[in-house]
Amino acid sequence: MAVHSHNHARTHDGIDWSSQLNARRRADELDAEAHRVVARRLVRTLPDNPTVLDVGCGTGGMSVALVEALSARGGGTVVLVDAVPEMLDAATGSARSAASYETDTTRATVRIRPVLADLATERPAEIAGAAQLVWASNVVHHLPDQRAAVSGLVEAVAPGGWLALAEGGLSGKFLPFDLGVGEPGLQDRLLTARAQWFVRMRENITDAVRMHGGWNVALADAGLVDVTAFSYLIDHPAPAKQAVRDWAVDHLKWYGEAAGDLMHPADRRTVRQLLDPQDPAFLGLRDDVFMLLANTVYLGRKQ
């Protein structure tokens, strides 16, 4: 695959995703167990040898879980779609490693098909064909017209198949209330800044269309039936392993870069302290850092 310069990796939301490769991989590792449970739940009702589409696959955390879930029930095809070459390469490598794993009893075959595509301009049905399950996690909200994007995903679902849209939930918390530096309650102010950042991110997308109402309504309006939802927790309590502390550092760094100008100068100073490996308050060495978040998955069936 050709090497793309960083500026090509910016998507409609203006985010340079390729620079977040390592951070995303660390998050995948911490999400892995929760993803396995969700993947097993989603593939349970699918027909034999199904095609599953992972749209906006990122570094492949859920791709791997889907591959493992399909392997356990006899095989299938997983199509990986992403707009960022570096992400797609990472996901493809991880998914192919998972596809070749064997248990004592079975040697399932799961085919992996990577597709580099921009969902704002390309239709999933045309690039990937019909799938019995389409999984799209936190990708639709980065696209200009979210309802049109949902319709595009529905188009790629085979009759009787499912769309699983992971959007919303509860933003991740990772800091104790009083860190001993700065004003108490930094976590809540970070979440406020993130919400403001999100509104600004949407407003800055060219041709952005506001989406009113909830995701269940969007799925029903797109023609799906039996629309339901469930949420799953990612919970790594303190004292946490080093991977959680590294994730917290990544996460706070993202806040500082993306939403820093939306924070009070005093909070910006605190964030700098928490990110400084030479500072006694450095997050990467704290025993009271944790990871707690909830993701919601909206499900709908195509008749």
TrEMBL record:
It comes from the Bacteria. Signal peptide: none annotated. One of its GO terms (molecular function) is methyltransferase activity. Gene3D superfamilies: Vaccinia Virus protein VP39. SUPFAM superfamilies: S-adenosyl-L-methionine-dependent methyltransferases. It holds the Pfam family Methyltransf_12. One of its GO terms (biological process) is methylation. Residues 53-163 form the Methyltransferase type domain. Keywords: Methyltransferase, S-adenosyl-L-methionine, Transferase. InterPro entries: Methyltransf_12, SAM-dependent_MTases_sf. This is SAM-dependent methyltransferase. It comes from Saccharothrix ecbatanensis.
